[in-house]
Amino acid sequence: MVEHRPLLKFVSHAVLILGAIIVAFPLYVTFVASTLSLEEILTVPMPLLPGNRFFENYAQVLTAGTTTGSHAAVGSMLFNSMVMALVVPLGKISISIISAFAIVYFRFPMRNFFFWMIFVTLMLPVEVRIIPTFKVIADLGLLNTYAGLTLPLIASATATFLFRQFFMTIPDELAEAARMDGAGPMRFFFDVVLPLSKTTMAALFVIQFIYGWNQYLWPLLVTSEESMYTTVIGIKRMIVGSDAANEWNLVMATAVLAMLPPALVVVLMQRWFVKGLVDTEK
Amino acid sequence: MAMEKRVVFRSAWLPYALVAPQLAITIVFFFWPAAQAVWFSFQLQDAFGMHSEFVGLENFAALFRDPHYLQSFKTTAVFSLLVAGCGISLSLLLATMADRVIRGALAYKTILIWPYAVAAAVAGVLWSFLFAPSIGIVTYVLKGFGVDWNWIIKGDQAMLLVVIASVWKQISYNFLFFLAGLQAIPKTLIEAAAIDGAGPARRFWTIVLPLLSPTAFFLLVVNIVYAFFDTFGVIDATTQGGPAQATQILVYKVYHDGVKSADIGGSSAQSVILMVLVIGLTAIQFRYIERKVQY
Q: Can you give the pTM of this predicted structure?
């Protein structure tokens, strides 16, 4: 710092601690609620220290769901969420990296037209074409399938842009050298471009993992069978009535399970996460 | 967009094969449905989709005669301005403080980025639990202060709840961008001002804030887009647009009218209007980015 001001330093820490407490409070209460019995939660005010029902609550939701709301086991929901969280980023990265490669490293008729077609999809979020996209999935017979859950989310203009932008920074000399050595475009792609893109891919993967895991509207539309619910949908289905009618201890245990995988990714891969976030918005 | 590679490869078919998967998905799941949305918006369908007739702009005219729809516009405006305003000012405050401290910086940052990982619907569930009218812990504290809290029947409290949940979820994003912006400000500028006798507050208003204004403007657009579209989960998990449409933002109304009430024509007309709004917002975002590149 420029100068030493103890009071300002104290204020900074005080503001940050207060902010961190407010941000963390809902997370803490969620965890506490997931370790209590339903009776303990329904006493007003509920206890703010963890109870002793941790194992019972988690075992119950993982294998059997709730009794008043949805009976679907959270174990299979976690699996479905994981499918989305892995297929969406991997699919996105694969189709975007090859289309960006084609657009940057080839000259061909309609190239600009294709580029603009991909670009325009930025302006068509799922939320604004709910009904017709649902119809397309229904017509293709993809309701309640993994393909229906993931395919429409795989196309992404931002990922294509990000790779295009990165490819523009790869020195021309590398492509020239590859061509002189007689390497074809795909050889160049696998031996040069792909290894150089590792950082970009990692950053995209982290962001898209969270995006895939946290999807809500789309799975809500295309899944009606309990076996296809994702965890986030499962939580919603467990809440059936007003306040006291829900088994909040089980809902909150499910909420903890729903938050944990993306939170671990964010915290443990913080460096890639921040890079991915900042890069995709450029 | 003007930049081009000097060295390129040649093939008559390979580039088409490489763009094909992305184009196929884009056409099937983006263009086709968007075109259908436009087409449906000119038609009147019965609830089962058996009959439809072409009605021209009647669906749009009906929308703008519908006081609920006009109200939903107002609700969306209030909601997105509150989310963007509160989210940006709170995270600017936190980022400015975090930029000053050295000890504990990583711990603060780790806690503050956590909400990004929480799904919007889950954020809605957490906050509605804290604020639950009969059993919520925050409700209990509010009662102690004499506040009669019940968002299930009071519209303004319901709005407050969805704003809090939405701001909470977005705070990580804003915080990280402000922190990156603050760390990009050259330390020499700050030091020079300090030598000239400017105190921390003066330096913040005259140096830091003007240099951060591009970041703040960018975040304003991003936050408005977020409030428009990505808060669907928050609303569906808490108020479901209620009470009496007090929190029914445009996206929620598209879903409600199309999926719950099966009004395909009306919902599609709303989709088309939303698309126009998104195109406008994206254009603003890109004009800004173009300007940033020139700097």
A: 0.90
Residue in A closest to B286 by C-alpha: A282
Indicate whether B2 pLDDT > 50. no
Residue with the two structure tokens 């500028």? B189
- Residue B295: what pLDDT? 34
Average pLDDT estimate for B36-41: 84
Helices (H), B101-231: 105-113, 120-130, 137-144, 155-183, 187-195, 200-203, 209-225
Any A CB within 8 A of B157 CB: no
8 Å CB contact of A278 and B176? yes
pLDDT in tens, A152-172: 889 878 889 889 989 998 999
For B246, the token pair is: 């007090």
CA distance to partner chain B, nearest, from residue A136 (Å): 7
Q: Any idea what DSSP says for residue A65?
A: -
The alpha carbon of residue B157 is apart from the nearest alpha carbon of chain A, in Å, by 16
- Segment B16-41 shows an average pLDDT of 89
Contact with chain A for residue B192, Cβ under 8 A: no
Domains of chain B: 14-54 (no CATH), 66-294 (1.10.3720.10)
> Which of B29, B92, B290 has the highest number of chain A CBs within 10 A, making it the mutation to test binding with A?
B29
Catalogue all structural domains in chain A, each as residue range(s) with its CATH number: 34-274 (1.10.3720.10)
**Is B8 at the interface with chain A, CB within 8 A?**
yes
The partner residues of A121 in beta bridges, in order of sequence, read none
Query: How far is the alpha carbon of A201 from chain B, nearest alpha carbon, in Å?
Result: 17
pLDDT at B268: 86
Q: Which SS3 state, helix, strand or coil, does residue B43 take?
A: strand
- Interface confidence, given as ipTM, is 0.90
